[in-house]
Amino acid sequence: MKKLTVLLVLSSFLFVSCSKSKDSAAPGKTFEATVDGKAYVFNIISATLLRSAADNEKRLDIAGISTDSSKRLIITLGEETSVGNGVSVKSYVLNPFPPDDPNTPNVDESLTTQGFSTYSTSLGNNNWFTDVYDENGSFQVTGCDATNNVISGTFQTTLTGMNIGSATVKVTAGKINNVKYTVLN
């Protein structure tokens, strides 16, 4: 999805000033992930499904801030349909910048991208540093109740900075359970 790559950049700016949720560790209001070997619980600050009938696509964003306020992680999943109030139960490829094969100039490799992660570290006072990462990961939606707008799943990814000398961030053991999301349109 070509538009998904553009949404990566936009989502980085969209969540620049989010406030921390007051709810702590309540089922469906948090998710878990291990970042570079350390386990974190993330308070969910937003979970939204945005549909675009004009483009015939939709995306689901789940954003959370770690309970120690040091990390922010946003998972974005996209589908090439605007129909329905949920996403498909399946495995999604997380990779916003798939390699372009010069031997197949008529093939749009971005169509293999079904989602991406946006990772940020705290600069303090609700300011965040968000780098641009190449990514190799997956998100397995294990359940999506489109009637009640609830989703569950697991994820893992490796984020590699696009700048020379940038760090690699490994996210493992990611888990969301019965997260309630809002359908925006």
- Termini Cα gap: 20 Å
The total domain count is 1
Would you identify the regions where 5 or more consecutive residues have pLDDT less than 50?
1-25
Fraction of residues in helices? under 10%
The DSSP helix count reads 1
Supply the helix-strand structural class: mainly beta
> Number of DSSP strands?
11
Order of helices and strands: HEEEEEEEEEEE
Q: Tell me the Rg in angstroms.
A: 16 Å
pLDDT averaged residue by residue = 82
Assembly state: single chain
The amount of beta strand, in percent, is over 45%
General shape: globular
Description:
The protein has one helix and eleven strands; from the N terminus they run αβββββββββββ. Strands 1, 2, 3, 4, 5, 6, 7, 8, 9, 10 and 11 form an eleven-stranded mixed β-sheet that branches. The longest helix is centred in the N-terminal third of the chain and has 13 residues, at 2-14. The two termini are 20 Å apart. With 185 residues, it is mainly β. The protein is globular. The chain has one domain.
